[in-house]
Give the backbone structure.
Amino acid sequence: MTSLRTLAVLSLMVCPALAQDAPEVKTVEFDAPSVGRKMKCNVVLPKNYDSSPDKRYPVLYLLHGYTSNYLDWAKLGAGKAAAPFDLIVVMADGGNSWYVNWAKSEGEDKDAWEDCIVKDLVGHIDTSYRTVATREGRAINGLSMGGYGAMTVGLRHPDKFASVGSHSGALAFARSVGKRIRAGEDLKKGQRRLSDNPNPAIGMDAFDSQAERTPKGDLFVTGEQADEHDPFVLVTKITADKMPHLYIDCGTEDFLYNDNREFVRLLLDKKIPFTWAESPGGHSPPYWAREIYQSVALQYLALTRALPRAEAARSE
């Protein structure tokens, strides 16, 4: 867990962010063959990006929650939180997919949403901007569904991300689905109907309503498939030298608080290093808008530590 000395340093890093002006947020469109469509994301560049043409920057990818979209991280202040740091921030869009490659899709739909992030989005960002295009130059973070997605994607691809974070993450989601599959439950029974009304602000053809943004098919077909996307399982299978930095936080009034605490206890039992933060708050934007300042600072610190070690190892 984070030492008091580290927390003291981080407090100095986080507080200046409150006085920073919000940077420009650019909306970017890119091809996403994994899901068979064009997707959008928001990008925030460091303030000295244009004036330092020879410099490369680490990247933080942010994943939104269920029924949200790529626009919402900027509303929560993610760009402003990153303003003090030499860091590119990418606010991704994954619809209501849980950031998983779906086991079955209806019709000709493509629903490889994990690949959309790891291959299509990361590939586009690395070819379009001056990134540190290695594991040591990437972090991934998310909230709620996106917290589950970031933890799952990060732990399934520890060769791609040096730091993985989760705000109020639905970390027990795959475990719960796996139990229901093994119990023979009909997972589609009782699913809530989502609105067909488009949100023009999203600006993606046939992907603007909640109904359109929800894949049709089966996320997992077997319990084993659910296990392969369960952070409680994944984190035990990574060797210490491959383990990314882990950051987890949750509000003490959040309905997911106990699941997050259980995940932290697992990390303690397995002696896996991590940073945990809890404070008053529920599963709501005010909590996330407050905690994003700490998580961005922590993940930037993790990347600045990883990069010199990687460079030293390559020079040996």
About this structure: The beta strands are 26-32, 37-44, 59-63, 88-91, 104-105, 138-143, 163-167, 217-218, 245-251, 275-279. The chain has ten helices and ten strands. The CA atoms of residues 43 and 90 lie 5 Å apart.
